[in-house]
Amino acid sequence: MQKSTWTGGHTSSVLSLDVNREGVLVSGGEDELCIWSKDGTSQSKLPFTSHLSSGRDSKEVNSVCFCVKNPERLYASCGNKILGYDLRNLASTVCEFQFNADEINQLDIHDKGTFLAACDDSGEIKVIDVASGRLFKSLHNKHDNICSTVQFRSNRPWEIVSGGMDFKVVSWDISSGRPLQELNIQELGGDTQEGAYFINPPFVHSIHMAGNGRTFAAGLGEFNTFMFM
Fold first, then answer.
1. Which of the ends of the chain has fewer CB neighbours closer than 10 A, N or C?
2. Is 0.90 surpassed by the pTM of this model?
């Protein structure tokens, strides 16, 4: 593996990253969204700010994701809005969604590109039917506060897994909108020192699903990572 440093795209913090199957990388930052060439020598900035109202709207690009089925399709979240782009024509958006009531923390798209999930600060997850542009399902009443991460479960087309700042990992059936399983990280115990726990509680910051859908890893605030079956 060769190390390289890409510069010249962002002028402030980089908040989100994704790579499509063709090796094109997108990075979201504070007031910036950049598309990078495969070797990192050039980049273009998407005109997402022109689609947001001035003043109260957040300009931070908290999440970006490419469609697996269509690597030219890109989604980015700013505040409670989702903007969709086609890399072949970045002059305008191809779709815009605003179903979340609060700031979106992460986007994830179904392997077949049919559904887009967006979790937010209110603890809700909105599942959007991409083709129709309509809200398919709202998942709520499980996360007590911020829902920070959401992932579709591979090989389980109607299931997603979410995690939040309430220490919970929840598995959902999106067809019914009901939770299937719930796990509280605090109840797992472990040998974490009490002082470290209060400085960095085990908030669920990220989830990554294995390709077979049988296991996933959860990254926690206390520097631990748990693997679940």
1. N
2. no
